[in-house]
Every structure is written in structure tokens, then in C-alpha cells.
Amino acid sequence: MRKLVYYVAATIDGFIAGPGGEVDFFPFEADLQEFIRARYPETLPTHVRPHAGIPDGTPNLVFDTLVMGRATLDPALRAGISRPYAHLRQYTFSRRLDSGPEIIDGDPVAFVRELKREDGLDIWLCGGGDLAGQLLGEVDELVIKLSPVIAGQGVPLVRHGFEPTRFRLVSATPLESGVVVLTYARATGA
Contact 189/153 with Cβ under 8 angstroms? Predict the structure, then answer.
């Protein structure tokens, strides 16, 4: 069965974006770029991949499907890009956007459970905090690019009521820029 992996950048104080959805304050130094190119090339938007040295047709390594909330898609839509990850099966959960094959207005948990039953690579939970809160029970793995930044406020990693959920550290990869890539797996029995 495929895994749902929440792969996301976060600040030391647990925010994945600023109060207005800003993400431009996250460091994106050469060492992080190289880490992403080597391990998670499919997490770069399709239009960015050639500029990052990832040729068209490069096979996906970890993910072949992504799910995201509407606010995560908004910056691409403002730039006139409806499918920022055209090299992946992309689904957006929204009750505000026009319906279509990639816009899901139903239950995210039921939809992700169906995706997990399919064959293929893992499923990338791209964001945001509200969707992550709804899907927390389905998240099998966290990959957090922990940035050496304190934001003070913004979009939390997970917007969810008090419900402690245990994960175990699988790996920690410190980068020279100060970013630490932390990989966690759902704790047994969690």
C-alpha cells in the first residue's frame, strides 16, 4: 500500500507559511536545492524543473500523486498556472474552485484512502495546515525541511484540535545552510 507523506518546509516555531500565505522567507540555498534535486526532484514545480537542471521526462523518485488544499494552489493560480505539478497526478481539495477532475470537494480522508489502495509511488501531501489537520490520521510519514527561521505567526504545520499523535525519527539530515531535513514515520500503534 502506498504511503501518504507530508513533505513540507516549516519554521522552528512550526509554521509552513506566513499569515498571508507567504513562503518567500524560507531559505532556499544551494545545498537545499541539491538535496531536493537528488532526493525529491518531483517536488519542484514543472515549470521550475528545467531551470533546476531536471530535464523533461526525468522519472519521479518518491511521489507520483499529490494532494493539496486550495490555499496551497492559489499562488500558482495567480501566476496563471492551473497545474504547477503537471508531471504528477495533482488533486486540490476545495469547495470554492470550479469542479473538475482535479478539484475534489468531498471527504479528503475517504479520497486519500482510495489513493493509498492504488499501485504506484507514494502520495505527497503538499499542504496546507488545514488539509494536514484533516488528514493527520492518514499521514504515514513526515518529511520536514526545518528552516532556521522563527516566523511568530502564520499557517501552522497542522491545524488540528488537541490530539497528540506520535511519530518516530527515521533520519535527520543537517545541511550547511542550517536547514535540517527531518524524516519521521508514524509510531507503531499510533
Answer: no
Instruction: Give how many domains the chain has, as a whole number.
Output: 1
Amino acid at 98: D
**Are 148 and 27 in contact, with CB atoms under 8 Å apart?**
yes
Q: What is the pLDDT of residues 34-84, one digit of tens each?
A: 999 999 999 999 999 999 999 888 899 999 999 999 889 888 888 999 899
Region of poorest pLDDT, from 113-117, 165-169, 185-189: 185-189
Q: Return the number of other C-beta atoms located less than 10 Å from residue 55's C-beta.
A: 7
In this prediction the pTM is 0.94
- Cell 526532484, residue? 41
Give strand pairing partners of 15.
156
Q: 107: alpha, beta or left, given left = phi > 0 and alpha = psi -120 to 50?
A: beta
Sort strands 89-93 and 122-127 into parallel, antiparallel or unpaired: unpaired
Which backbone phi and psi does 137 adopt, to 5 degrees? -65, -15
Helices (H) and strands (E) in the chain, counts: 4, 10
* Residue 67, Cβ density class (10 Å: 0-12 exposed, 13-18 middle, ≥19 buried): buried
* Domain CATH number, residue 68: 3.40.430.10
**For residue 78, what are the domain limits?**
4-186
Q: Nearest-CA neighbor of 184 among 145, 140, 147?
A: 140
